[in-house]
Structure formats: C-alpha cells, structure tokens
C-alpha cells in the first residue's frame, strides 16, 4: 500500500507539475526569465515582424519630437529627413523589450556603417544612466537616447516595445507594438532593400 502511494506521489504528471509550477511563477515574476523564454520562441519562428509596405506619396508624416543623447546633445526627428529612421521605444524593466533587444542589436550591427539609416533606441523611462548600464551589461552596442519632448501618440501609444520605421521623406512606413525578431534574415534583407530606395 505504501509503495502504491509513493508510486502515485512520484508519477510523471506530479513530477511535471512540480517542475512547471515553479517555472511559470519564475517566468511571471522575473523579467529576465520571461525575456529568455520569448527569445527562445523568436528562434523557432514566433514574433516575426511584418514587412513595411510602400507608403503612398500623401502618407502620414511622422510628427516631430526631440531626443537627447548621453552627452546632452539634442536633435529633432525632422532633422533626420533624407535617412531611414529605425526608432524603438523600450524600457529596462520590460520583458518583451529585453526579448527583442538582441535582434535589434544584430540589425544595428549589420547596418551601423550605412549612412542611409539612423537607429534610435529610446528609453521611455527617461533614465539614461540606468538604460546605459543595462545595455553595457548585455554588451549591446545600440545608440541610446531619451525623449527631450512629449512623445506623440502616432509614434508611441500605450505599449512598449514599439518600433517605428520612418522613410527618407519623413513618413511613417511601419509601426509595430510588441516584441518582434528584427534580426531574422528575411527582415534584414527587406530592410536593406528599403534603405537603398
């Protein structure tokens, strides 16, 4: 009888439950674990970004706003006309932001020398020092900025991460809320063709 009770106690379903419950709690409370799970799902093909479509000549212009870098230099979005702008809004505490960061870093590394594109990763908490420490710890080379003006709703709604691509004319060509794998080869090839236009 005691053997049967032990056998029931150590059944496969009980062992699986004993492993899954703590894991799910850990995913729920720890942003790094949740980000790691999401990165794994990206590697198997989930969280793929859509491809920006052609923007009509009378498409929505990106509203202007200003940004500040770590040295206190300020510039406006409108000053970047003539270049494709890859704009990502994120925060250090946000698991989906953390999950997509390696793919954005890979995209940046591939195009960092291209004079036709500018990457802006903007910490929505406005804490440059904390965000910079996070990027250094993760060994990301992404250029970091904070907003120096109100962020227009056309660029950032109520959800982070949000990624916006602005074409050379200053029009919003792409906007995606939520995590996405921007480092996959399909998106990189599309992005390369897009910035060559």
Automatic annotation (TrEMBL):
SUPFAM superfamilies documented for this protein: Thioredoxin-like (SSF52833)
PROSITE patterns registered for this protein in UniProt: THIOREDOXIN_1, THIOREDOXIN_2
Pfam families: Redoxin
Gene Ontology CC annotations of this record: cell envelope
Keyword Membrane tagged: yes
GO molecular function annotations of the record: isomerase activity; oxidoreductase activity
Key word Glycosyltransferase present: no
Subcellular location(s) per record: Cell envelope
Domain of life according to the entry: Bacteria
Transmembrane domains' residue ranges: 12-29
A single BP term in Gene Ontology: cytochrome complex assembly
Every Thioredoxin domain range: 56-197
Keywords assigned: Cytochrome c-type biogenesis, Isomerase, Membrane, Redox-active center, Transmembrane, Transmembrane helix
Name used for this protein in its record: Thiol-disulfide isomerase/thioredoxin
Organism expressing this protein natively: Chitinophaga ginsengisoli
Species classification: Bacteria, Pseudomonadati, Bacteroidota, Chitinophagia, Chitinophagales
């Amino acid at each position: 009888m005691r053997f049967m009770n032990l056998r029931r106690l150590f059944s496969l379903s009980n062992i699986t439950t004993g492993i899954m419950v703590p894991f799910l709690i850990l995913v729920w409370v720890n942003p790094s674990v949740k980000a790691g799970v999401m990165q794994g799902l990206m590697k198997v093909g989930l969280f793929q970004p859509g491809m920006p479509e052609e923007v009509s000549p009378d498409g929505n212009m990106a509203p202007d706003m200003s940004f500040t870098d770590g040295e206190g230099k300020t510039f406006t979005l409108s000053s970047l006309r003539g270049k494709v702008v890859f704009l990502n809004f994120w925060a250090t505490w946000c698991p989906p932001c953390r999950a997509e960061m390696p793919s954005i870093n890979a995209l940046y590394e591939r195009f960092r020398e291209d004079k036709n594109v500018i990457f802006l990763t903007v910490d929505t908490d406005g804490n440059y020092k904390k965000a910079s420490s996070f990027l250094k710890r993760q060994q990301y080379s992404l250029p970091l900025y904070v907003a120096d003006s109100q962020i227009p709703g056309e660029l950032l709604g109520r959800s982070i991460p949000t990624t916006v691509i602005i074409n050379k004319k200053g029009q919003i060509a792409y906007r995606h809320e939520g995590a996405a794998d921007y480092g996959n080869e399909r998106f990189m090839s599309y992005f390369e063709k897009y910035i060559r236009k």
